[in-house]
Amino acid sequence: MVKFEIFGQEYPLHTDAPEEDVCEILDLVKAQMERHTPSSKILPVKIAVLVSLNMAAMYVRLKRDHERLVRRENQRVAELVSQIESAL
Q1: Distance between start and end Cα atoms, the chain
Q2: Which of 18, 25, 41, 77 maximizes the CB count within 10 A of its CB?
Q3: How is the chain split into domains, by residue range?
């Protein structure tokens, strides 16, 4: 279990992820949360929801980019296999 703090509130995080990953995740979440300082008129829980939605949107974009890359690479591999087969 890892404990971390955001806006003065401590949270426990139960994870089996490597420490390096946990640190990177926590840094990302903290940075996103702190972009909307608590002095703004948005409640911390609403900030957390906004951050979650923004991070989910980033995930969806990255997932789509990854799928496109995999399709492109698979197509390229198929083309290369075809070229090799025709050369034999």
Answers
A1: 58
A2: 25
A3: 2-87
Give me the torsion for CA of 3, 14, 29, 37, rounded to 10°: -50
Distances (CA, A) of 62 to 7, 55, 57, 58: 28, 10, 9, 6
- Taking a C-beta distance cutoff of 8 angstroms, is the pair 12, 2 a contact? yes
How many of the other CB atoms lie within 10 Å of CB of 47?
20
pTM of the model as a whole: 0.73
Q: Which residues of 71-87 are buried (b: 16+ CB within 10 A; e: fewer)?
A: eeeeeeeeeeeeeeeee
